[in-house]
Design brief:
With 145 residues, the protein is of the alpha+beta class. The chain has one domain. Helix content is 21%, strand content 49%. It is built from two helices and ten strands. An eight-stranded antiparallel sheet has the order 8-5-4-3-2-1-10-9. The longest helix is centred in the N-terminal third of the chain and has 26 residues. It starts with a helix and ends with a strand.
Length: 145
Amino acid sequence: MHKVGRFAAATAAVMATAVVWAGAAAADYGNTAVRQIEISANVPGNQGGGAWLWIELSGPGTSGTGTYAGADCGRGGAVSDKGDVSWWTDGTTIHINGVVFNGFGGLPVPVTVPWQTGHYAGTLQSDFPTLVFLPPGFSQTTVAP
C-alpha cells in the first residue's frame, strides 16, 4: 500500500476509535456534566515533553467537582494521570484544582481554561499557569458542553 494510503487508513482507524470512545464517555456522566475539556500541551525539542488531559466537570452552577484522565511526560516517557478535581468559574475562566502530574513526581498543577465553549490555541502556561519554569511550547484546548 502507498505511504499516503497507509497514513490515511491509520488516521481513519484512529478517528473511528476516538468517535466511539467519545460517544461512550459522554453517556457516562448524564445530565450533571457542564463542561468536557481536552488539552494537548507540548514543548518541542530535546528538553521537551507534554501533557494530554481529558477533564469532565459536573455542576450545577458556577462550581463543582469532576474527574480527569491523561498523561504527562518529559524526556523519560509518558506517565498516567487521573483523579478527582474541584472547579469554579468567574464567568470568563474556569479554574480547576486537583490535577496532578505524576511525571513531575506528583506535582499539583492548577488548570485554567476559557468558560466559553470552543477550540483555543495557546501556550503551555495558558492552560497550566504555574509551569513558568518550562519553555512556553504550545497548547490546543477544546471546551465542550
